[in-house]
Write a structure and sequence with these properties.
240 residues, alpha/beta, two-stranded antiparallel sheet, 8 helices, 17% strand, binds S-adenosylmethionine
Length: 240
């Protein structure tokens, strides 16, 4: 899968995405991540990419021309208009099912805004999806773009090894994951739940399933409305 990140701060996304699992997947050729510097495409002789907002008000607005030309350079190379995400607090809140959906694309363009945002006209021209990473305002779209690349990349076949497999993780089936433990068996007087040491896989699975449900009820009760539960679990755990 190819990611093209349109940004004014290419070094930020390059440095943020070249380590650990994502960095290895890039080295192995499963992913390519290209930071496209929007400033390289400005026609302004002083390399300006922003200007004052029409109608007045605080801050600067990123201009349409450099963004469009940066996007065009990617579209021309791909030979088609790619799915293009604008990271914005005004977008749909990013969820695991969106990560899965994006992972089905061969190429994805991510546009990172800065300052007060981006001239609306270029958004209308190129953007297919508006995505927010939460109800708060950041200074730029680079961190949200990195969040999206990380979450989407994990869904690309081969990026996670078997040991790191994404199955059974939080949000699979609409539940949070059960608690995890590793060595030693006792730490600071706290013991690993004895069932995990029993070697009885059926009992371990049943315990984990129950913990998943209880944890979801405690921490994210909103997820319970749509979680995939058996009839027995519905009777036991769903309110009403
Ligand atoms: N004036 C804009 C508004 O009120 O909606 C906010 C602009 S913000 C200071 C600058 C840039 O950061 C945005 O263009 C967007 O790319 C990015 N950004 C900020 N918060 C974000 C969030 N929660 N999710 C995704 N992108 C965000």
């Amino acid at each position: 899968m190819k990611f093209y990140i349109l940004t004014l701060f290419p070094e930020m996304v390059e440095n943020g995405l070249n380590t650990s699992i994502i960095g290895r997947a890039v080295k192995n050729g499963l992913l390519s991540i290209e930071a496209v510097n929007i400033r390289d495409y400005t026609l302004d002789k002083h390399k300006k990419v922003d200007d004052y907002p029409y109608g007045g008000g605080a801050g600067m607005v990123m201009q349409a021309q450099p963004i469009y030309d940066a996007w065009r350079s990617v579209a021309d190379r791909l030979g088609h208009a790619p799915r293009t995400v604008y990271l914005t607090p005004q977008g749909h809140c990013f969820k695991q099912n969106m990560a899965k959906d994006f992972a089905g694309e061969d190429a994805l363009v991510l546009l990172c805004g800065h300052y007060e945002g981006v001239d609306e006209r270029v958004l209308e021209e190129i953007v297919t999806d508006y995505v927010s990473i939460g109800d708060y305002v950041l200074t730029g779209g680079e961190l949200p773009a990195m969040v999206l690349v990380d979450a989407v990349s994990r869904m690309v076949p081969g990026v996670l090894t078997n040991e790191q497999s994404g199955t059974g993780e939080s949000f699979e089936g609409g539940l949070l994951e059960y608690p995890q433990y590793s060595r030693p068996e006792e730490w600071m007087g706290r013991k690993v739940p004895s069932i995990l040491l029993s070697g009885d896989h059926a009992k371990v699975d049943a315990w984990r399933r129950e913990q998943s449900i209880l944890r979801t009820i405690e921490r994210r009760p909103d997820l319970m409305d749509t979680a995939q539960l058996s009839e027995e679990e519905v009777r036991r755990y769903r309110k009403g």
